[in-house]
Design brief:
Blueprint: H1 22-51, H2 53-57, H3 63-94, H4 97-116, H5 121-124, H6 127-155, H7 163-188, H8 193-200, H9 202-206, H10 208-219, H11 226-234, H12 241-248, H13 250-280, H14 285-313, H15 315-337, H16 342-368, H17 376-393, H18 395-405, H19 411-430
Amino acid sequence: MTTHSQAEPTAVDAIPDSLNTKQMRRILASSFLGSAIEFYDFLLYATAAALVFGTVFFADLGPGMAAFASFGTLAAGYVARPLGGVIFGHFGDRVGRKAVLVVAMLTMGIATTLIGLLPTTAQIGVVAPILLVALRVVQGLAVGGEWGGAVLMALEHAPARQRGFAASFANLGGPAGALLATLAVSAVTLLPDEQFLSWGWRIPFLLSIVLVLVGLVVRLKVAETPLFQNLEKAAESKKTPLMDVLTCYPRSLILALIAGTSIYTIQGLVTVWGVSHVVELGADKTGVLNAKALGAVAIVITTVIGARLSDRFGRRPVMLTGAIAAALTAYPILMLIDTGTVWGFTIAAVAAQAIQGVIFGPFGAFVAELFPTRMRYTGASLAFQSATTLGAGFTPAIAAGLMIVAGGSIVLVGTVWVLAFLVAAGAILLSREGRDSNLADES
């Protein structure tokens, strides 16, 4: 714990008493907007992987294997996310949250725009999918540095009793970005199939550069967090943040990773594999994407509710409620997807993502409060990004493989879903409650 003389106020004194100030409104807007743009880029790829990339980059493999290969490239970005969390988290803990977030956003914007310009396999052969994977990895590195920094910019500025709600603005950026990406792809699916597959799918990727420029304008106006400024003055630790996390807080890292994996199991199964599966069964693409957009709206609403409730009752009780609900509804949701209808998928997507939001709302504060300031960016990012890799990165490909093994039955997919949430519930119960912790004492 760092000590300071009475004559010199600490940077922590700058933390406001309310979120309703000009400074805090700007900080929350920056956290939300930056996260939304990053996740627009990252999740745009997921939608394209479900609908486009199998045809454009893997047409020679046959429908089943093309879907598997396409989801494999999707997983490559998720594999890169923990590495991005470590790299950007290291500099975020040593240099500052703000500067790292600016670099992460620029990196993402460039990679996404280049995907929109990428020639197809028919044009340049095997080089095309290789470049696609390389750009997907860059996307993964960039988004790996975004979430942790966006959460901390809000949380480390916020009053103690509103940290859960403040941190949720970064979480809200994810579904908002997914909603924007889904609507962008849905709009271009109105083109004739030939035009959609030849050039229409590229438009949402090229729009990324415009969104990134807007996000940078907002992000550059935000000040560094008071807790990090205080840490800089104290010169608290010269150790490598990653080693600090692995040697001092391995239990917190593992429990947060397990709890977070559950959130992204739903995302991978419903909004990626589910989209591909229901369209393959004959549902209209545009209708399915519009249903997915409704699911994103549902998660935005329940994320806010979950975050607010966590400030009142604690992070663990709210997240545990969501985990139990997810386990109980796994098979009904999958059965609705398996109807192969737009109406079935709409109900499934809204229900699944509403439950996901209950867990997701408190999660930003939950994971950040498990680590002290000097390693918080690295610890929170590594836990969250590893969770997304395990939960969302591999589940679409795993689900596709399980469907082949089970002869088209959803039984094995449902089993994986239920087990993921039962294990997550145990991890949440074993975690420390951070709602009443004093982050200034944990620098």
